[in-house]
Amino acid sequence: MAIRHEEITKVWHAHASALTLLARTRCNTAEDCVQEAYVKLAKLEELPREPIAWLSQVVRHEAISHWRSEHRRQQREVIAVQNQQQWFASADSDRCDPIDHLALQQALENLDVDDREILVAHIWTGLTFRQIAELTELPLTQVHRRYTAAMQRLKLEIDASNHSAAAPT
Questions:
Q1: pTM for the complete prediction?
Q2: How far, in whole angstroms, is CA 46 from its chain's centroid?
Q3: Staple partner for 63: which of 23, 56, 100, 101, CB 3.0–4.6 Å?
Q4: 100, 78 contact by CB (below 8 A)
């Protein structure tokens, strides 16, 4: 017999806030960690003898897992940036200044979510514009235009970031 809904609700109200704080010590997705812990709790046959101790352990493991996943993602982005430093090189230049990966990440986050998806799909995933058009259900010409415009916005934002970082204070 599964745990009754009322019991889970009671445990949720008693401990969710504290568990969220616990998860925040390790990751930026605390609410997700707590939710996943309660989903695991709901799948149990009976309530653990000490629900807060059991949930704390599950939340901690979830937070560590989320942090590791985020850390791996950031490492992949750094490597991708290092491997693709020529994205913003102008046609008349034979070298490109290194791009600050944090500035690139911020510039990507500032893009419209659909434009960011197109850029990531093409640059990091290696999908063709035709494949991206199928994926996003957008016309091929629109995918190409959005990609080009998004690249221009990224270049402008990163250039602005590089200039402000180089400016004397």
A1: 0.51
A2: 35
A3: 23
A4: no
List, as own/partner pairs, every contact residues 24-33 make where C-beta atoms lie below 8 angstroms and the sequence separation is at least 24, other chains included. Answer: 25/63, 26/60, 26/63, 26/64, 26/66, 26/67, 27/63, 27/64, 27/66, 27/67, 27/70, 28/66, 28/70, 29/63, 29/66, 29/70, 30/63, 32/62, 32/66, 33/59, 33/62, 33/63, 33/66
User: Helices 30-42 and 51-83 meet at what angle, rounded to 10?
Assistant: 130
State the average pLDDT for the chain: 84
- Cα 109–Cα 118–Cα 72 angle in degrees, nearest 5: 55
Q: What does the domain layout of the chain look like in residue ranges?
A: 5-74, 87-166
Quick: pLDDT tens for 46-60.
999 999 999 999 999
Question: Under CATH, which architecture does the 87-166 domain have?
Answer: Orthogonal Bundle (1.10)
Question: Which single residue is written with the structure tokens 């809904």?
Answer: 5
DSSP 95: -
DSSP-assigned letters across all residues of 35-90: HHHHHHHHTSSS--SSHHHHHHHHHHHHHHHHHHHHHHHHHHHHHHHHHTGGGG--
